Amino acid sequence: MPDSERSPLLSAAGSSKAPEPHEHEEPFESTPLLSSSTATPRYDGERDDGHHSDAASIASRATNTPSVKSAKDRSIRWPSIIAMIVLALLALAVMILAFIVPTAVEEYAKQAIVLEPTNLSLESITTNGIRARIQANFRLDAQRVTNEHIRRVGRAATWVVGELGTEETQINVYLPEYGNILLGTAGVPPLRVSIVDGRNNAVDFVADLAPGDADGIRTIANEWLEGRLSTVRVRGQADIQLRAGIIPLGTHSIVESLTFEGSKLPHMPEYNITRIDFKEQPVPGESNAMAAEVTIQSFNKYPVSLDIPELGFEILVPGCSPDDPSILVGAATTSRVAVRPHATVVVDAHGLIKELPDSLTHLCPSSDSSPLDMLFKKYLDGEAATALVRGQKQPAGNTPAWLAEILSSITVPVPFPGRSFDNLIRSFSLEDVHFKMPDPAAEPDDPSSNPRVSGTILVLAGLPSEMNFSLNVTNVRANADVFYRGDKLGELNLEEWQKANSTQIPATDDNEATLKIQSRINDAPLNVTDPDVLTDVVQALLFGGREVMLSVKALVDVKVQTILGELVVKAVPAEGKIPVKPLGKDPLGSAAPKVGRVKITDTTPTSLSLQALVNITNPTPYSARIPFISIYVENNGTTIGEAFAENVDVKPGNNTNLAVSAIWNPSLGGEEGVRRGRDLLSEYISGYNTTVTIRTHRGTIPSLPLLGEALSRLNFTLPAPRLRLPAGDGDDDNGDDDDDENQDAGDGPHFIRDATFHVLSSTATFTLVSPLLHNTIFIDSVTATALYNHTEPIGRIEYALPFAAPPGRSQTPRLPVEWSMDSVGYGKLREALGGRMKLDARAVVGVRLGRWTERVWYVGRGIGAGVRW
Questions:
Q1: Of the listed ranges 149-158, 785-794, 808-817, the one predicted with least confidence
Q2: Where's the Tag1-like fifth Ig-like domain (predicted)?
Q3: Using a CB cutoff of 8 Å and minimum separation of 24, what contacts does 241-248 make?
């Protein structure tokens, strides 16, 4: 060991003086704290010379052995080691407190913080913004922190700090995605909160909120209202002065960004329009205006409380296209509204429309609708129509200018539910109906090829309770679909405006307000789209014996005169019922056609073309004009002729001298037709009750071939028309001189009016009555038998020389008679000499008219005959 380290703390007395250290050498740490005796004066004044006695030396060694060991221990340098350890701990603490703990505490705060808003109330609206009272519960919940180490560090750090306080702070909120514009500012007063884990803080303070850039607010609000705001990121920035108790922690600049998903942002609250009332309101110095009072209810599901002052708004409607500017139609003012947490909010608004702008009622380019038409169409179709609400630039009442500026830059679309107008039409009737058949020369696609209807429409419509103003319907037009038992019959088109008038009937305690509308329609085309349905309707009218109910679905255009002027409301949906009265129990039988003034216009060997004037009775309340109609005449399912008419007007009741044309041509039915034609003609002239069947066909109405074909399934069987025969003295129209029994012959016409038998000359003459007023009938041959009491022969006539039966009454030449001398009938004839008797006749007669010839049989009963010598 070096000598210096081995030097005792107390050197021997005789030792020499320790050498001085070199000038540039550091002193050794082992230098004894007490110098040797050679450098120290003795108490007796003598210096130690460094020599000891032996005994003293031995004692000194024995005594100083521990001292040597202690000096060795002091040589480990403990102060340096302790200093190094403290410095290391301080460095570690600085690293932990400066880097690790703040990061952990920050993460702990982010995860553990719990903020529960309990109430947000609007204290007042100031000239610069809003003063709001914010109430919330604030606490740190360590259980929300997922990382165990962060949880421990954060819990310990917040326990140590205990509570934090802030000075008055201003928070600025920016929109980074929108040019970093200022959304708004909030002035927060000083706050103190405990940050110990689990300790709740009831925060209650009043903050001043001031809006920022109006353009930014408008941009974000409009995107939110239009549903284009998928996400929004806001950045809050504030300089917060913190302190822990009385210890200031300095000013900290905090910048925090939050991103909100569009789906998580508050939505436009649902609302119900519980009351809407339109009425006339006088305006001083101006004409009356239309006022609308609306009550809207909504539910506030947020913990927000505020009182909204009276606000003014502009009411607009969309233009022709989304690119066109909206059209201002009126102004509205809301009353003061009290919004309370989790409660129903009631808003009363009063609107006023002084006049309708021209842009609202003018037709859009390349369209037949105006913006008003499109708005009404959506509303009346039951769809949600949209009005636009925008704040007025001029503040209303005590509304601050900044609030008016913001509201005036935001346009809110307000959809209001459409109204279903089901059962709006209480009754729908058509009176004084007149039908006009299609023009026969029209093409099938020509509008004039449709039947036309004229009549008086009577409509009773219920007025909605919210319409409390006078109105008058001046014109109507409509496109209506007509249905029978759910199947579409056709379309009734009123393309031209029809004049109308209306009467408003006020509401009573028992009945609602109604509007009675009356309009006369003229020649409205009825397009039959399903002939089969028309067949069912006609069949029900003819044979059902009860009222037929047709349903109508129409889109009606209405010209309405209101206090705002004349409005044209288009495509108003209307549904109603049209009761169609039956045509009577037996409409065909009730027609009772009578034929008079028959004229043969042309003949062929097998056919007759004739014209006649017909009298019929129309038992229905409907009238009709028939430009052309053609029907087949059948008997026993065989066609024997065709009848047609042109330009015939049929009115309810008696119709006389209707011109009808017909072709008698049994050959249309082949051999069976010829036979049936002969028998029918024979039965008819014999006075039997004969019937014919009329049937439509494709040519019945040339412009509506499908209609005629559909109606052909209906068989209309009616008695053969009675011919109007000339009447003689004492005769009736049928030439019935006597009260004949008629029996099988019924009440048919009697062409043989009288007979005279000459016994001595064995001849007979007959008085004939022809229904033809312009044509002469020729009798080419007669084979006949006269009978008494239906069975007893009187005589037989065979005559083969032609003779004429001119129009009216005529006398036959004397026809030779071969008497049946041994019969009872001849005896009765002789008994009646100089008097009269009734006889029957059976004959086969050859008839000729122009080129037409036919052999018919004739049976006459109860013919009055005079007997002469």
A1: 149-158
A2: 746-857
A3: 241/166, 241/167, 241/169, 242/164, 242/165, 242/166, 243/164, 243/165, 243/166, 243/167, 244/161, 244/162, 244/163, 244/164, 244/165, 245/162, 245/163, 245/165
Co-location of 117 and 227 in the same domain: yes
User: Which residue reads 């023009």 in tokens?
Assistant: 439
Tally of domains within the chain: 6
Place of tokens 């929109």: 175
* Residue at 730 is within a domain: no
Residues 200 and 222 in one domain: yes
Torsion region of 374: left, alpha or beta (phi above 0 gives left; psi -120 to 50 gives alpha): alpha
Tokens standing for 703?
């412009």
Question: What residue type is assigned to position 515 of the chain?
Answer: L
Q: What gap in Å lies between CA 240 and CA 164, rounded to an integer? A: 11
| 502 vs 518: CA distance, rounded Å | 6
Token code pair at residue 322: 């989304």
Supply the range of the domain harboring residue 212: 112-264
Q: Are residues 431 and 576 in the same domain?
A: yes
Contact 203, 136 (CB under 8 A): yes
Angle at 265 between CA 264 and CA 269, to 5 degrees: 115
Residue 791: band (very low, low, confident or very high) from pLDDT cuts 50, 70, 90: confident
| Kind and range of the H or E run holding 153 | helix 148-161
Residues 246 and 284 in one domain: no
Question: Which candidate, 415, 418, 386, 392, places its Cα nearest to that of 404?
Answer: 392
Comparing CA positions, the residue from 161, 13, 48 lying closest to residue 101 is: 161
* DSSP state letter for 22: P
Average pLDDT, the chain: 76
Q: How far is CA 482 from CA 45, 102, 485, 648, 713, in A?
A: 153, 83, 10, 26, 22
What lies within 8 Å, CB to CB, of 290 at 6+ separation is: 278, 279, 280, 281, 352, 353, 354, 469, 562, 563, 564
**Is the pTM above the cut of 0.90?**
no
pLDDT tens for residues 379-391? Answer: 766 677 788 888 8
What CATH number has the domain bearing residue 753?
Answer: 2.60.40
Q: Confirm if 518 and 498 have CB atoms less than 8 A apart.
A: no
Distances in Å between the Cα of 300 and the Cα atoms of 124, 208, 342 are: 19, 23, 5
> In whole angstroms, what is the distance from residue 743 CA to residue 689 CA?
10
**Among candidate residues 392, 416, 440, the one where a domain is terminated:** 416
Return the closest-CA partner of residue 345 out of 302, 312, 385: 302
CA 837 → CA 103, 731, 753, 832, 866, distances in Å? 144, 18, 14, 7, 6
In a domain, 594, yes or no: yes
Least confident of 218-227, 776-785, 837-846: 218-227
pLDDT reported for residue 506: 82
**Rounded-to-integer distance, Cα 209 and Cα 126, Å:** 10
For residue 149 the two structure tokens come to 């180490």
Same domain, 45 and 133: no
> Using CA atoms, how far apart are residues 479 and 485, in angstroms rounded to an integer?
20
